Each structure stands twice: as structure tokens, then as C-alpha cells.
Amino acid sequence: MRLLLCTLMGVVTVVTWSAAHAQALRFQPQGAGAAGQGNAFAAQADDASAIYHNPAGLTQVQGIQMVFGIALVGGSIKAKSATGLDTRGDYGGSVSFPPPGHTYLSANLGAIGNPRFSAFTIGLGLTSPFGLRVRFPVDSPFKTAVTSAELPLIAIKPTIAYKISDALSVGVSADIYTFASFLGEGHVEQKQISAGSPGIPAGAEVELNGSGTGAGVTASLLYTPFRNEAGKPIVSVGLVYRSQSVLPLNGALLVSGVKLADASTDLVLPQMAKGAIAFWPVRTNEREWKVELDVEYVGWSSNRNLDVRISNGGTIPQLQQWKNVPVVALGTEYRWLNPRWLSDWEVAVRSGYTYTGDPVPDRTFNPGIISLPAHTLSLGLGFHCTGAGRLLGIIPCSGDSAFWPKGIGFDLAYQEWFYEARTVVGNLNPTVDGTYHAFVHLGTFSFRYLY
Question: How far apart are CA 28 and CA 42, in angstroms?
Fold first, then answer.
């Protein structure tokens, strides 16, 4: 038991995919249009990425729309141990690969079938909202806690939205969390160096891996009390609730590549509640200006422990004691509609700010997660062409064929994460004590097709 306890300390670090976020396991950018606004999008939610941000917003998306894209994550982690030793880690390289991605498909039932069902819109999303890819030198001061960690966790989101009235829509989606073999190793994986114990020599590489599937649900509404003469929203309110989800992980404990035992645990993904309000000070036929505020509660306190069950019948307690944290996002978008200088196009510029709280206490902090309070600045651009517009001056943006889209768009966003420095004292693993700094930059882009 002492052997396994020593070996499995820090197992929580394997259940992350991109440490580009201060909020432990979570990866917030799930579409470039929202990312350019600091992820403040739940009250706007007017493209197919509403499947993630606010499913009720799908009722605003006409016809059939496809959105897909990726996020490229880079940066570094600096640490100075309590003994004064320096080390540096990264997110799997200069750019994390394979990168997190997002894909959305939505269809209004009235557009693809009987007009009587035009109040219903269905959708399917494929996202990576939780995860990690991080690595440290094998001679770092905390090598007995972690040297590398990876989690290619994806979420599959079948969604349906219903327009109750012009002012109110509701939506619901299933959140199916699982692993994909085309992303990295296709399973949770953490590596560390043994400190030495019976059966495991000091200096041996220890690996814990596993996979599993869990599910949750997202329910939301979109309320639009005020519209302009053209029927477009002037004020919108979004409410989104994501349920807690338990993800069973089953795998193996390896020492120098040789399986030592089966191991399993349950990862609890938190419940979340978000309220958002968007206001358009300007919304005419020529231009639009939106300002939005999103405030979110993330219930990380459900992650009290990550006890590991061993095939010999024993249980290794893994204390976590995480806490609930807020996320506050403020974003804006200014959009030109069919401007004279670029006819048959819509052009948008975006910016935003996000504050993300830190749920992990000093006692259970692990360098594989790098959970630090963070301030994020975002910038973005969006282009959408219809009618006689041409992409790159050559490709028609709209055609009469059922196989050619009615509109083509693409969005770009850049985020810079400014982490607050953190000094860890009194950790369960004393080698982890020290001061941590992190730097992250993220670029993401999305393509949109409207049929």
C-alpha cells in the first residue's frame, strides 16, 4: 500500500488535456467567434457553436450550419522549488499537438422537413472542454510528482432547441465524455519518476493510464425581451446549467513499461451555472455593436478526492479538496453589414476580458495542472460572405446548387493568459513546494458554412 500510495500520488494530473487554463481541467475556448470576445457569448449564441455556449440559441440559426476549427496552444511553465532549483515545462512542445478542436452541426427542422416543425432546431457538437498536455524535464525538482501528463478527452453533444415564442427559447444537450484514439495515446496518461520503494527502484519511470466514458446534461434558455423594428435582439439574457458528470477511469499501473497492477478511479467533472446578458447599443441595417457580460459558477468542490482502487482490493486515498470558483467574462463585438468597401460581406472585430478563479489549494496542488488565478485578454476578427461575394476573390460564397453553401465565413481569435504568480507551501508532496509562473498564448480559428 505504501508502494502504491507513493507511485500514484498526483494521479489527478493525468485527467487534463490543455493546461492553458487557470481553472484546473477546463478548456474554455470552444469556437473562435466566442473566444475573440473573452468567451462572453451565452446571451448572443447566434451560430452553431451555441451547442456548447447556450443550446437554446440554436433557434436563432437558420437552415443548416456547420462550424469547425482548432485551437493552437503554446507557452511555458516556470517553477522555483523551495530549495532554490529552477525548472521549466511546456504544453507538449512549442504548440500543443494534436490540438484541441471543435465541430458543430445544426439544422432547423423546418428547413429540412415539414415547416410545422420550424420551432425546433437540432444539433451535434464534438468538443474538448476538459483536458491536458504538459511535460517537465525528467530531472525536475518535483519529478516524483509528474514528468508528463496527457488526456485526449472529448465531449459529444447531441442537442435540441425549441422556440416557445419570439421572446423565449429553451434547449438541452447530452454531454457524453469519452476518449478518442486519434488524439494522442487515446487514454489518460501520467508519467513520473519513482522515489524508490519496495518493488519499484528509485529512478524507474512510473506510468498510470486509463480510459472511460461518462455523461451529463446541459439545459438552457434564451430570453429576448426587446427587439428592434427588424426583429433583431436589442437585449438578450441567457441562462445555462451543466450537470455534474462522473467519468470512470480504468487502466493500468506500469513500471518501466511493465504492467504492475490494474487501477481505477472516478473523475468528477463539476456542475456549472452561468448567467449572461447582452446589449446592442447599435443595431441597424448597416452596423451592429454588442456588449456582453457572463458570470459563471463552477462547482469544483465536488472534487473532494480521487481515490484509486487497486486490483488487489486495496484503495489509495487521493485528497483533492478543491473549491468552487467564479469565472467572469466581458466581451464586445462590432460588426459591419455589407459595407461599401466590401460588398456582400459581414466584417466583425471583437475583444474581451476573462477572470478565472483558482480552485486548487496549496495542500493538493500539482504542477501537472498549474492552477493559478488568471486574467485573459482576447482579440478577434470575423468574416462572412453571402450573395455575390467571393472568397479570395475567386470562390463564390453562394450558389443555386443544394450542395453549395448559401454563405461562407471564418473567424480568428487570439488569447493571452496572464497568470498570477503562486507560492505553494505545505503540499502533501514536499518536492512540489515552491513558486510557479505560467505563460500561455492561444490562437484559434473556425470555419462556418450555411446551407
Answer: 12
